[in-house]
Amino acid sequence: MSDNIQLNAEPRTDSGKGASRRLRRTNMVPAVIYGGDSDPQSITLDHDKFSHELENEAIYTQLIDLNIGKDKDEVILRDLQRHPYKSRILHADFFRVDKKTPIKIVVPIHVLNADECVGVNMDGGMMTQLTTEIEVISLPKNLPEYLEIDAENLHLGESLHLSDIKMPEGVEIVALTNVEETEHDDHDLGVLSVVKTRAEEEISDEAPEAPAVEGEEGGGSESDGDADSSETSEE
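-> structure tokens emitted (235 positions)
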């Protein structure tokens, strides 16, 4: 696990939508810290510096040292509100962590050896990632930045599931915790699969031409013969 990410913030006493709008006009982001034994605290962050830190994937899953003047809180980023179409951050929520208390957090899944996947290179299939992130639970010190799954030996028609992810020590997948053995498969969601390409599916869906039935033409001759016999009898 990497060292804690550092963020600087300033306390604020004003609240409400009007105060938040004024802060945004000065290129600041209103935010709040909650959780733990302390009361919620309103803070502000510099928009451009915070936006730059958000380019680092780890900030969404790792512990953050939030420096507020001379004080410091160890937190995780719980929620982030962005403008629907502008490149602007509107608000952020931070959650105080207790080093002795396990916490849940959503982490991304990285695929290893995708370019070497047997099902794609040898079998001519197409890889599909069914799950891109999952919720895990662990002590704050064990929080992973991401989880990895190896696609190298995945063949056409096969899938990898949550249980195939190699988990770091002290980290569990929430979906698989406290699950009865009989219910395990229902919770063990697929992560990767290799399927046929669309071209292959179209070829396999084409029905072969029906072979000619032997004696089909003969059947027509018998019909003609019956007609001739009828004409003869009438004569």
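DSSP finds six helices and 13 strands in the chain.
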